[in-house]
Amino acid sequence: MLEILSVEAGSIADELGIQAGDSLVAVNGEPVNDLVDYLIEEPKESLHVALKRASGDLWALDVEHDSEEPLGLVLPHPEPKQCGNNCVFCFVHQLPRGMRRTLYVKDEDYRFSFLYGAYVTLTNLAEEDLQRILNKKLSPLYVSVHAADHMLRQKLLGNPAPDVMPILQQLVAGGIEVHTQVVVCPQINDGEQLAQTCRELVALAPGVKSLAVVPVGLTGHRQRLPELRPHTRQEALELVEWVEATQEQLLEKHGTRFIFAADELYLKAEKEFPSLSVYEDLSQVENGVGLIPQFRSQADEVLDIAEPLDLPPISMVTGVSAADDIKAFARRLADKCGLDLRVHVIENDFFSGHVTVTGLLTGQDLLAQLAEQDLGDILMIPDVMLREGEEVFLDDVSIDNLVERFDKQIEVVAADPWGLWDMLDTLSMELG
Question: Residue 335 has what pLDDT?
Answer without folding.
Answer: 97
